[in-house]
Amino acid sequence: MSTQTLRVGDVDLADWRWMLEALYARFETGDFSAGAAFVAEVARIADELNHHPDVDLRYGHVQITSTSHDVGGVTDRDIELCRRISVVAEESGFAPRPDKLQALEVGLDTLDPDAIRPFWAAVLALGDADSDALVDPAGELPGLWFQDTTSTDPARMRFHFDITVPPDEAQKRVAAALKAGGRLVDTSHEPSWTILEDAEGNKVCVCSALGRDD
């Protein structure tokens, strides 16, 4: 099966959303036992295809992430796996909930990424200290990436959150944040990301794959 990296527009899977170089889906299973049985079937399919996703089993739902780590993106292997999983979910009566999907990253503004990256890799036990972004191999902590800055203002906020959601949910999330007292800071990069801040000036980017991973 092909290992060529695909683009966002190449993927047409109703249950799945492209976020952070991977395909994500969430299925409502109702209870833990039903979810566990679903995961067992996912494992069988993954072994058959020799392509294995990350699976998060909770009491009422299962969330699945699929990517081809050897090429750093989504390939035909992921498409086939995701299609097979969706068939099982539909046959089992498990509703997809793409509106519930989200992935969190943390950005750190820095004058010298190379000087501080090893510290954060060590203290958080995140991935390879030589990589631009640090990722938890177990997938339990959000990734940490480093944003170059020339500002030495001690009052400047150094950390900010990047929350990535499906493109069809991004503006809903922005609207909810504004209704909750947030303020728009920058919309010039939409639909890739919108910068918001709370009443005290703490910033967050609401991101989607459109334009960002394309």
From TrEMBL:
<protein>
    <recommendedName>
        <fullName>Putative pterin-4-alpha-carbinolamine dehydratase</fullName>
        <ecNumber>4.2.1.96</ecNumber>
    </recommendedName>
</protein>
<dbReference type="Pfam" id="PF01329">
    <property type="entry name" value="Pterin_4a"/>
</dbReference>
<dbReference type="InterPro" id="IPR036428">
    <property type="entry name" value="PCD_sf"/>
</dbReference>
<dbReference type="GO" id="GO:0008124">
    <property type="term" value="F:4-alpha-hydroxytetrahydrobiopterin dehydratase activity"/>
</dbReference>
<dbReference type="InterPro" id="IPR041581">
    <property type="entry name" value="Glyoxalase_6"/>
</dbReference>
<comment type="similarity">
    <text>Belongs to the pterin-4-alpha-carbinolamine dehydratase family.</text>
</comment>
<keyword id="KW-0456">Lyase</keyword>
<feature type="domain" description="Glyoxalase-like">
    <location>
        <begin position="106"/>
        <end position="207"/>
    </location>
</feature>
<dbReference type="Pfam" id="PF18029">
    <property type="entry name" value="Glyoxalase_6"/>
</dbReference>
<dbReference type="InterPro" id="IPR029068">
    <property type="entry name" value="Glyas_Bleomycin-R_OHBP_Dase"/>
</dbReference>
<dbReference type="InterPro" id="IPR001533">
    <property type="entry name" value="Pterin_deHydtase"/>
</dbReference>
